[in-house]
Protein backbone atom coordinates (compact mmCIF):
# COMPACT_ATOMS: atom_id res chain seq x y z
CA UNK A 1 0.00 0.00 0.00
CA UNK A 2 1.47 3.38 -0.87
CA UNK A 3 1.47 6.28 1.57
CA UNK A 4 -1.36 7.97 -0.34
CA UNK A 5 -3.95 5.33 0.48
CA UNK A 6 -3.46 5.40 4.28
CA UNK A 7 -5.83 8.24 5.23
CA UNK A 8 -9.03 6.18 5.15
CA UNK A 9 -11.28 8.36 7.33
CA UNK A 10 -11.88 12.09 7.11
CA UNK A 11 -9.00 13.76 9.00
CA UNK A 12 -10.21 15.23 12.30
CA UNK A 13 -9.09 18.76 11.44
CA UNK A 14 -11.56 18.92 8.53
CA UNK A 15 -15.14 20.02 9.20
CA UNK A 16 -17.48 17.66 7.33
CA UNK A 17 -20.15 20.34 6.90
CA UNK A 18 -17.65 22.71 5.26
CA UNK A 19 -16.21 20.31 2.72
CA UNK A 20 -16.53 21.24 -0.95
CA UNK A 21 -19.39 19.34 -2.57
CA UNK A 22 -17.63 19.21 -5.90
CA UNK A 23 -13.89 19.20 -6.61
CA UNK A 24 -12.39 19.64 -10.08
CA UNK A 25 -8.79 18.73 -10.90
CA UNK A 26 -6.33 19.75 -13.60
CA UNK A 27 -3.95 16.79 -13.52
CA UNK A 28 -0.76 18.50 -14.66
CA UNK A 29 2.83 17.31 -14.46
CA UNK A 30 2.69 13.70 -15.66
CA UNK A 31 5.31 14.28 -18.34
CA UNK A 32 7.70 16.06 -15.99
CA UNK A 33 7.25 13.37 -13.34
CA UNK A 34 8.31 10.70 -15.83
CA UNK A 35 11.12 12.71 -17.40
CA UNK A 36 12.65 13.51 -14.00
CA UNK A 37 12.97 9.73 -13.51
CA UNK A 38 14.45 9.13 -16.94
CA UNK A 39 11.19 7.48 -18.08
CA UNK A 40 9.13 8.16 -21.21
CA UNK A 41 6.33 10.72 -20.67
CA UNK A 42 3.67 8.06 -21.09
CA UNK A 43 4.77 6.41 -17.86
CA UNK A 44 3.68 9.57 -16.08
CA UNK A 45 0.18 9.23 -17.55
CA UNK A 46 0.07 5.60 -16.44
CA UNK A 47 0.99 6.58 -12.88
CA UNK A 48 -1.47 9.47 -13.15
CA UNK A 49 -4.32 7.00 -13.57
CA UNK A 50 -3.41 5.41 -10.22
CA UNK A 51 -3.45 8.85 -8.60
CA UNK A 52 -6.87 9.60 -10.06
CA UNK A 53 -8.28 6.27 -8.90
CA UNK A 54 -7.13 6.90 -5.36
CA UNK A 55 -8.43 10.47 -5.36
CA UNK A 56 -11.85 9.23 -6.49
CA UNK A 57 -11.90 6.67 -3.66
CA UNK A 58 -10.74 9.31 -1.22
CA UNK A 59 -13.52 11.72 -2.27
CA UNK A 60 -16.01 8.91 -1.73
CA UNK A 61 -14.46 7.86 1.62
CA UNK A 62 -14.56 11.46 2.87
CA UNK A 63 -18.14 12.10 1.75
CA UNK A 64 -17.71 14.45 -1.23
CA UNK A 65 -20.46 14.42 -3.84
CA UNK A 66 -18.62 15.01 -7.09
CA UNK A 67 -15.18 14.89 -8.71
CA UNK A 68 -14.41 16.18 -12.20
CA UNK A 69 -11.07 15.48 -13.91
CA UNK A 70 -9.61 17.18 -16.99
CA UNK A 71 -8.28 14.15 -18.88
CA UNK A 72 -7.83 15.57 -22.39
CA UNK A 73 -8.36 19.12 -23.60
CA UNK A 74 -9.44 20.20 -27.10
CA UNK A 75 -5.91 21.59 -27.42
CA UNK A 76 -4.18 18.31 -26.44
CA UNK A 77 -4.57 17.03 -30.02
CA UNK A 78 -1.52 19.22 -30.73
CA UNK A 79 0.73 16.80 -28.81
CA UNK A 80 2.90 14.25 -30.66
CA UNK A 81 0.68 11.65 -32.34
CA UNK A 82 2.30 8.85 -30.35
CA UNK A 83 1.30 10.46 -27.04
CA UNK A 84 -2.25 11.22 -28.23
CA UNK A 85 -2.69 7.61 -29.38
CA UNK A 86 -1.30 6.35 -26.10
CA UNK A 87 -3.77 8.47 -24.11
CA UNK A 88 -6.78 7.37 -26.20
CA UNK A 89 -5.79 3.71 -25.75
CA UNK A 90 -5.17 4.29 -22.05
CA UNK A 91 -8.64 5.82 -21.49
CA UNK A 92 -10.24 2.88 -23.24
CA UNK A 93 -8.20 0.26 -21.40
CA UNK A 94 -8.77 1.85 -18.00
CA UNK A 95 -12.52 2.08 -18.62
CA UNK A 96 -12.71 -1.55 -19.67
CA UNK A 97 -10.60 -2.74 -16.73
CA UNK A 98 -12.20 -0.62 -14.03
CA UNK A 99 -15.87 -0.60 -15.05
CA UNK A 100 -16.91 -3.52 -12.86
CA UNK A 101 -15.35 -1.90 -9.80
CA UNK A 102 -16.81 1.51 -10.70
CA UNK A 103 -20.27 -0.06 -10.86
CA UNK A 104 -19.73 -1.98 -7.60
CA UNK A 105 -18.54 1.17 -5.81
CA UNK A 106 -21.75 3.01 -6.81
CA UNK A 107 -19.88 5.64 -8.86
CA UNK A 108 -21.88 7.46 -11.54
CA UNK A 109 -19.50 8.18 -14.39
CA UNK A 110 -20.09 10.80 -17.06
CA UNK A 111 -17.90 12.05 -19.91
CA UNK A 112 -18.14 15.64 -21.10
CA UNK A 113 -16.61 17.23 -24.19
CA UNK A 114 -16.81 16.79 -27.94
CA UNK A 115 -16.99 13.01 -27.70
CA UNK A 116 -17.91 12.49 -31.37
CA UNK A 117 -14.29 13.17 -32.46
CA UNK A 118 -12.85 10.44 -30.21
CA UNK A 119 -11.90 7.01 -31.63
CA UNK A 120 -15.07 5.01 -32.27
CA UNK A 121 -14.02 2.17 -29.95
CA UNK A 122 -13.45 4.67 -27.11
CA UNK A 123 -16.85 6.26 -27.78
CA UNK A 124 -18.45 2.82 -27.44
CA UNK A 125 -16.68 2.18 -24.13
CA UNK A 126 -17.72 5.63 -22.86
CA UNK A 127 -21.36 5.05 -23.83
CA UNK A 128 -21.35 1.65 -22.16
CA UNK A 129 -19.79 2.98 -18.93
CA UNK A 130 -22.31 5.84 -18.71
CA UNK A 131 -25.24 3.50 -19.30
CA UNK A 132 -23.98 0.95 -16.76
CA UNK A 133 -23.50 3.54 -14.02
CA UNK A 134 -26.51 5.79 -14.69
CA UNK A 135 -28.62 4.25 -11.85
CA UNK A 136 -25.76 4.64 -9.34
CA UNK A 137 -26.40 7.02 -6.47
CA UNK A 138 -22.86 7.43 -5.12
CA UNK A 139 -20.22 9.95 -6.10
CA UNK A 140 -20.60 11.65 -9.49
CA UNK A 141 -17.35 11.26 -11.43
CA UNK A 142 -17.06 13.42 -14.55
CA UNK A 143 -14.23 13.02 -17.03
CA UNK A 144 -13.61 15.94 -19.39
CA UNK A 145 -12.30 14.41 -22.62
CA UNK A 146 -11.72 16.41 -25.79
CA UNK A 147 -13.13 19.20 -23.67
CA UNK A 148 -12.71 22.96 -24.06
CA UNK A 149 -14.66 25.55 -22.09
CA UNK A 150 -14.93 27.96 -25.04
CA UNK A 151 -15.99 25.16 -27.37
CA UNK A 152 -18.62 24.10 -24.84
CA UNK A 153 -20.07 27.63 -24.70
CA UNK A 154 -20.14 27.91 -28.51
CA UNK A 155 -21.79 24.46 -28.71
CA UNK A 156 -24.48 25.62 -26.27
CA UNK A 157 -25.07 28.84 -28.25
CA UNK A 158 -25.51 26.87 -31.47
CA UNK A 159 -28.00 24.50 -29.83
CA UNK A 160 -29.97 27.45 -28.44
CA UNK A 161 -29.89 29.13 -31.89
CA UNK A 162 -31.33 25.98 -33.45
CA UNK A 163 -34.15 25.90 -30.91
CA UNK A 164 -34.96 29.55 -31.68
CA UNK A 165 -34.87 28.86 -35.43
CA UNK A 166 -37.34 26.02 -34.95
CA UNK A 167 -39.63 28.34 -33.00
CA UNK A 168 -39.24 26.24 -29.82
CA UNK A 169 -37.56 29.01 -27.83
CA UNK A 170 -37.77 32.81 -27.67
CA UNK A 171 -34.61 34.95 -27.19
CA UNK A 172 -36.22 36.62 -24.16
CA UNK A 173 -36.48 33.21 -22.49
CA UNK A 174 -32.67 32.86 -22.38
CA UNK A 175 -31.24 33.30 -18.90
CA UNK A 176 -28.38 31.72 -16.91
CA UNK A 177 -30.49 28.78 -15.78
CA UNK A 178 -31.62 27.98 -19.31
CA UNK A 179 -28.11 28.42 -20.73
CA UNK A 180 -26.71 25.89 -18.27
CA UNK A 181 -29.11 23.26 -19.57
CA UNK A 182 -27.29 23.40 -22.91
CA UNK A 183 -23.82 22.88 -21.44
CA UNK A 184 -22.18 19.43 -21.44
CA UNK A 185 -22.33 19.58 -17.64
CA UNK A 186 -26.12 20.07 -17.39
CA UNK A 187 -27.33 18.66 -14.09
CA UNK A 188 -23.89 18.68 -12.43
CA UNK A 189 -23.26 21.24 -9.66
CA UNK A 190 -20.54 23.86 -10.15
CA UNK A 191 -17.12 22.96 -8.70
CA UNK A 192 -16.50 24.56 -5.29
CA UNK A 193 -12.79 23.91 -5.52
CA UNK A 194 -10.38 23.61 -8.44
CA UNK A 195 -7.06 21.90 -7.72
CA UNK A 196 -4.24 22.28 -10.23
CA UNK A 197 -1.01 20.35 -9.75
CA UNK A 198 2.54 21.21 -10.85
CA UNK A 199 2.45 24.93 -10.20
CA UNK A 200 0.88 26.56 -13.26
CA UNK A 201 -1.54 29.40 -12.36
CA UNK A 202 -3.94 28.91 -15.25
CA UNK A 203 -7.45 27.59 -15.88
CA UNK A 204 -6.48 26.35 -19.36
CA UNK A 205 -9.96 26.45 -20.92
CA UNK A 206 -11.44 24.18 -18.21
CA UNK A 207 -15.09 24.68 -17.10
CA UNK A 208 -15.00 28.42 -17.86
CA UNK A 209 -18.69 28.99 -17.14
CA UNK A 210 -18.92 26.59 -14.21
CA UNK A 211 -15.89 27.92 -12.31
CA UNK A 212 -17.01 31.54 -12.08
CA UNK A 213 -16.89 31.32 -8.26
CA UNK A 214 -14.72 28.24 -7.64
CA UNK A 215 -11.87 28.54 -5.16
CA UNK A 216 -8.54 27.77 -6.84
CA UNK A 217 -5.76 25.81 -5.14
CA UNK A 218 -2.43 25.36 -6.93
CA UNK A 219 0.25 23.01 -5.65
CA UNK A 220 3.80 22.50 -6.93
CA UNK A 221 3.35 18.74 -6.50
CA UNK A 222 3.25 16.88 -9.82
CA UNK A 223 0.03 14.97 -10.49
CA UNK A 224 1.46 11.43 -10.06
CA UNK A 225 2.63 12.43 -6.55
CA UNK A 226 -0.69 14.00 -5.52
CA UNK A 227 -1.87 11.69 -2.73
CA UNK A 228 -4.40 11.83 0.11
CA UNK A 229 -2.03 13.89 2.26
CA UNK A 230 -1.79 16.48 -0.50
CA UNK A 231 -5.58 16.42 -0.90
CA UNK A 232 -5.98 16.91 2.83
CA UNK A 233 -3.72 19.98 2.58
CA UNK A 234 -5.84 21.35 -0.28
CA UNK A 235 -9.06 20.86 1.71
CA UNK A 236 -7.54 22.56 4.79
CA UNK A 237 -6.66 25.56 2.61
CA UNK A 238 -10.20 25.54 1.16
CA UNK A 239 -11.78 25.53 4.63
CA UNK A 240 -9.79 28.65 5.53
CA UNK A 241 -11.24 30.53 2.56
CA UNK A 242 -14.18 32.85 2.96
CA UNK A 243 -16.52 32.45 0.01
CA UNK A 244 -18.49 35.62 -0.63
CA UNK A 245 -19.81 35.11 -4.18
CA UNK A 246 -19.47 38.84 -4.88
CA UNK A 247 -21.21 39.91 -1.65
CA UNK A 248 -19.57 41.54 1.40
C1 LIG B 1 -1.17 16.57 -18.11
O1 LIG B 1 0.19 16.32 -17.80
C2 LIG B 1 -1.91 15.31 -18.20
C3 LIG B 1 -2.68 14.90 -19.25
C4 LIG B 1 -2.86 15.70 -20.48
C5 LIG B 1 -3.36 13.59 -19.24
C6 LIG B 1 -4.05 13.25 -17.97
C7 LIG B 1 -4.68 11.93 -18.06
C8 LIG B 1 -4.65 10.97 -17.11
C9 LIG B 1 -3.98 11.11 -15.81
C10 LIG B 1 -5.36 9.68 -17.36
C11 LIG B 1 -6.78 9.72 -16.84
C12 LIG B 1 -7.49 8.47 -17.19
C13 LIG B 1 -8.83 8.30 -17.24
C14 LIG B 1 -9.39 7.00 -17.68
C15 LIG B 1 -9.77 9.36 -16.91
P1 LIG B 1 1.29 16.76 -18.85
O2 LIG B 1 1.50 15.65 -19.81
O3 LIG B 1 0.89 18.06 -19.46
O4 LIG B 1 2.56 16.94 -17.97
P2 LIG B 1 3.72 18.01 -18.17
O5 LIG B 1 3.09 19.36 -17.94
O6 LIG B 1 4.71 17.65 -17.13
O7 LIG B 1 4.22 17.85 -19.57
Automatic annotation (TrEMBL):
Q: Which CDD domains match?
A: Cis_IPPS
**Known EC number(s)?**
2.5.1.-
Q: What PROSITE patterns does the record point to?
A: UPP_SYNTHASE
Q: Which cofactor does it need?
A: Mg(2+)
- Identify the keywords attached in UniProt to this record, alphabetized: Magnesium, Metal-binding, Transferase
Task: List positions binding substrate.
Answer: 29-33, 41, 45, 73-75, 77, 79, 196, 202-204
Q: How is the cofactor bound?
A: Binds 2 magnesium ions per subunit.
Keyword Magnesium present in the record's keywords: the answer is yes
- Molecular function per GO: ditrans,polycis-polyprenyl diphosphate synthase [(2E,6E)-farnesyl diphosphate specific] activity; magnesium ion binding
Single Gene Ontology BP annotation? polyprenol biosynthetic process
Residues annotated as binding Mg(2+): 28, 215
Q: Where's the active site on this chain?
A: 28, 76 (proton acceptor)
Family annotation (InterPro entries): UPP_synth-like (IPR001441), UPP_synth-like_CS (IPR018520), UPP_synth-like_sf (IPR036424)
Lineage, top-rank taxon, reads Bacteria
Quaternary structure and partners: Homodimer.
Role this protein plays: Catalyzes the condensation of isopentenyl diphosphate (IPP) with allylic pyrophosphates generating different type of terpenoids.
Q: What family does this belong to?
A: Belongs to the UPP synthase family.
Q: Which HAMAP family does the entry link to?
A: ISPT (MF_01139)
Q: Under what name is this protein listed? A: Isoprenyl transferase
Q: What is the lineage of its organism?
A: Bacteria, Bacillati, Cyanobacteriota, Cyanophyceae, Oscillatoriophycideae
